[in-house]
C-alpha cells in the first residue's frame, strides 16, 4: 500500500473537492488555475490533497486535507514534505499559510507564527485566501526556504 505524490489533473477535481469539503476547507479555487493542487494517492484513490498558489518567490500553501481514515498516520507530513521539496526545486523562497486549526502541525515542520502584517507580498495579500476566505483571526505562518 505505497503512497505516491503527484501534481493533480483536471480529472482529480471531484475527489479533491470531496476531501476539502470533508475537512471543511474552501473549494473556491478548484478548477480556476489559481491553485496548483497536489495529491497523495494510494491504490488509485486520492487520500490527500493540498495546493500552492505562486506569487513571485513566495508560495501560499492552502487546503491541506487528508482522508478521515488516513489521518494521524503521517500522510499529511509526507505530502507537505513532498510539496516543500517541489518548492525548493522551483526556487521558492518563502511558504506562507493561514490556518484556524493546524498551527501545531505546521510548527513541527518549521513554520513560524507571524503577524498578518508581516506578509508584504501585495499580490498574495489580494488572494482570496487573505482577502475573504480566511478571517483576520486565522493564524499566519511562514517558512523561509533560503
Description:
The chain has a single domain (3-144), classed as Gcn5-related N-acetyltransferase (GNAT) (Aminopeptidase), CATH 3.40.630. Strands 1-2-3-4-5-7-6 form a seven-stranded mixed beta sheet. Helix content is 27%, strand content 32%. It is α+β, with helices and mostly antiparallel strands. The longest helix is centred in the middle third of the chain and has 15 residues, at 75-89. The termini are far apart.
Number of strands: 7
Q: Percent range for helical residues?
A: 25-40%
Helix run count? 5
Low-confidence runs of at least 5 consecutive residues:
none
Short description:
By secondary structure, the chain is α+β, with helices and mostly antiparallel strands.
What's the structural blueprint in terms of helices and strands?
Elements: E1 3-7, H1 13-22, E2 36-42, E3 45-55, E4 58-66, H2 75-89, E5 94-99, H3 103-107, E6 112-114, H4 122-125, H5 128-133, E7 139-144
Parallel strand pairs: 4-5
Antiparallel strand pairs: 1-2, 2-3, 3-4, 5-7, 6-7
Features:
146 residues; alpha+beta; Aminopeptidase; seven-stranded mixed beta sheet; 7 strands; 27% helix
